[in-house]
Amino acid sequence: MLAALQLVEGGQHFSSLSIREITRQTGVVPTSFYRHFRDMDDLGLALVDELSMILRQLMREVRESQANAAKPEQLIRHSVDFFMQQVDANRGIFVFLTQELTGGSVAVRQAIRSELNFFTNELVLDINRYRILPDLSREMLEAAALLVIQIVSMAIVEWLDTAQTLASQRETIRQRIVRQTQLTFLGASHWKEKEKTV
Amino acid sequence: MLAALQLVEGGQHFSSLSIREITRQTGVVPTSFYRHFRDMDDLGLALVDELSMILRQLMREVRESQANAAKPEQLIRHSVDFFMQQVDANRGIFVFLTQELTGGSVAVRQAIRSELNFFTNELVLDINRYRILPDLSREMLEAAALLVIQIVSMAIVEWLDTAQTLASQRETIRQRIVRQTQLTFLGASHWKEKEKTV
DNA sequence: CGTTTTTGTGTACAATTGTACTTTCTGCAA
DNA sequence: TTGCAGAAAGTACAATTGTACACAAAAACG
User: Which of A84, A159, B22, B135 is the most exposed place for a label (fewest CB within 10 A)?
Assistant: First the structure.
């Protein structure tokens, strides 16, 4: 699994990897692959499972880093800074997950989407816990929370393409995440249910 | 190019296609490939160019379908309905574009991103033309417009995974697009520049 | 018409691939 | 110490791959 992640981080798309390539990377004979996975699809799913665990832990750390939040208006900014730092420290994970979010097999795609839904629910819980947006309907709350998750997801792809040395471009991305997130919360706080959605 | 699109629509990832596979699909000898493209990357870029043209035309039609818009509050809903209809009618195009948005080579990814920026600018022009959000700063306006584009982009991926027969699931996706877009505009309309972004 | 450019064909080959199979190794429990 | 299960190695083979090169048809153009 680590070998596959390294190859993906090295610029190849997961769906273009071969079994032999992966075993070669780990310094093991091709047929050993089958001791652990039925085929590449199986490996893909195993990776999503494994990386999901790591990702959840990582999100917990983002949350904890805000436990003694300075000022609430800087909460978003700090979370974004901290999170993007983690993205850099775990490139392989995020390259794989963003690739497969739109790429791999149906099963893998849905596994990743259900992980995004998990984070959406966590966010909904947090919003409720801190009594932000108390008047929002469940549906709208979920749409807003998922939107925040999607904002970050889309930004990660671009972030990973932007060299760490290009500080100004990276700052542009960070600012956009903050702005779009603020926009989302601002919109949600002004939502009146009478404005019928459909 | 059509052959590649068909294979992608058939469930394979573009980066896993082989030259021989493509030429086989068109009923032509493998070496003929090189008469038209240097390599697969070249084909990928050519596809983005070609599909961008089609996509722009398609977006124009979405706009025109709203020229004599009934009521403004239904404008979003109607545009979404019309657009998703076009997605169904052009699956191959959208499968490829969403795949490569996070997948392919750096060059292809950036080509697609710049296309998304084009649509963002178009949307900004429209917003200005109709005097929606007259008080919004340029930066915030762009962030909001891009967010709308991103909302749709993310939804397309899920849409393509949802069979046409599952009407209720598809309606859920449509509603989410509408809600998230409304949220974005609502937030943008309440934005005061004093709420410093960063 | 004749010529030139573009596109397609045929042949060839070394490299890589997935996977079935048999055999060897390794660590641990009895 | 023995036995055994899990992991790796070794061997094998047919299928597929990218691409070089020489030649043939077709299209474009004067």
Answer: B135
